[in-house]
Amino acid sequence: MSAGPAAPLVEMRGISKTFGGVRAVDDVSVELAAGEVLGLLGHNGAGKSTLVKILSGVLAADAGEIRLDGRPVEIRSPRDAKALGIETIYQSLALTDNLDATANLFLGRELTGRLGFLREEAMEHAARGTLGRMRLQLPSLQAAVSSLSGGQRQAVAIARAVHFNARVLIMDEPTAALGPEETRKVGALIRELARQGIGIVLISHDIHDVFDLADRLTVMKNGRLVGTCRTAEVSKDEVLGMIIAGELPRALLAGGGRAMH
Fold first, then answer.
1. Which one of 41, 71, 161, 251 is most buried, by most CB atoms within 10 A?
2. CA distance 51 to 24
């Protein structure tokens, strides 16, 4: 007897969140598979950030359930999320400019010896290993991150999450303010991490940022789920219509594509 299909890596079921009478997230359900890139799209105020803040433990949902590998989990804080392998990379990257890449990678989670001294050589060795796994090279691990390019800084922030065994990576506008070449490099890095089985959520209000990277696209508007569709089965114009009008394309409504509403 063959085993049934594997449970999604993450399921968010019926998630709702209200702020002072405003429904920021209204009964939203999404799921993410291991090794999948899911684009989360919508205008500012659509509810994207609130939804992922619930997944990352920054906010508590008023209603709904989160499951990991098919099992219900409680995420009351960012520490809970990290313990479950859910890491978030915000647009600010949360890097300390005057420290080098290794120090930023271990920031707040430094390796120390029995007497409390930093194990600098061990941390640098581990940093090189993580960057190697990501197929990345930096000009220097000793240089302050302020001297790195935008794409290299993004890579350091991603490496920090990957080093601490991220299974789910939430990325907020990962290619914002990057030039075409750096955007391409970050895109290649995202594909490599997905190939290694990490589930990735890309938050964006720009279709072009995620269309070439995402396996599926989820669109939100005014706190509600418009729908989820496979990227290969929709055009950018159709997705733009979902973002603006808050409705699924006619072809998908008619059953012409694999969409979930």
1. 41
2. 8
